[in-house]
Amino acid sequence: MKKVILTIALGVASLITFAQKPSPELLNPTNHSLVLIDHEGQMAFATHSIPMNELRDNTGLVAGASKIFKIPTVVTTVAEKSFSGPVFPEVLEFYPNTAEFIDRTTMNTWEDVNAYKAITGKGKKKIVMAGLWTSVCVVGPVMSALNDGYDVYVITDASGDVTKEAHDQAITRMVQAGAKPMTSIQYLLELQRDWARQDTYKAVNDLVVKYAGSYGIGIQYSREMLKH
Question: I want to staple 212 with a disulfide (CB 3.0 to 4.6 A). Which of 81, 156, 216, 228 is the partner?
């Protein structure tokens, strides 16, 4: 009887332990790098798959999250000075040192020597990507990184294309190849994971207030009204 009780107790304990172990598929602050690709004016002008204010806010959420959680991040541009122009203010807010950006002529970031070295030099097997346009400048490095054995995630709502169909078909193609789609809020909250993590709690909520639309308004409201 004692053996049976002990066996049951060990079984319950193992289940509890297992339940507390998160999936290795989940992102955390130490298991991935981030690549922000060509969030620039010229690329944005023709983007119609998502309202521009939403794209900018979502990009701000991703850039801000990467800064809060100290994610190794590469910002790339394409023909910045001659054609595409500066990156979004929402990127510059968190990454103001433009000298660190990787400017390219290639549409596929993976084919640029400096960009490739910068990304792979982070030493992370998981890579998260977002950018403009989805069907060109995101598909290229995503498919290339997958081919090289990396585990690749695509933030779909911080990416955009000339039409919704172009964006959707690009996402479908990448997912079929093995990429994992996610959204900007999902990215932020997956990194926070536990509201008891006080080191990042306030910064995350401040970021949400600024860039997360109605979710942010809700936090602003509760901060003020729950004082009463």
Answer: 216
Please name which of 33, 200, 60, 55 lies closest in space to residue 134, comparing C-alpha atoms.
55
Tell me the one-letter amino acid at 144. S
Q: pLDDT, tens digit, for every residue of 122-142? A: 999 999 999 999 999 999 999
> Element (H or E) spanning 154, and its range?
strand 151-155
Q: Give the amino acid at 128.
A: V
Please list, residue by residue across 127-149, b when 16 or more beta carbons sit within 10 angstroms of its beta carbon and e when fewer do. bbbbbbbbbbbbbbbbbbbbeee
CA pseudo-torsion sign 191, 195, 201, 204: positive
Written in H, E and C, the secondary structure of 184-213 is: HHHHHHHHHCCCCCHHHHHHHHHHHHHHCH
If you write DSSP's letter for every residue of 77-101 in order, what string do you get?
EESIIIII-PBPHHHHTT---GGGS
Of 74, 176, 69, residue with least CA distance to 131: 74
Strand order in the sheet with 151-155: 102-104, 73-78, 32-37, 126-131, 151-155, 180-182
67-81 pLDDT per residue, tens: 999 999 999 999 888
Report yes or no: 36 and 62 within 8 Å, Cβ to Cβ: yes
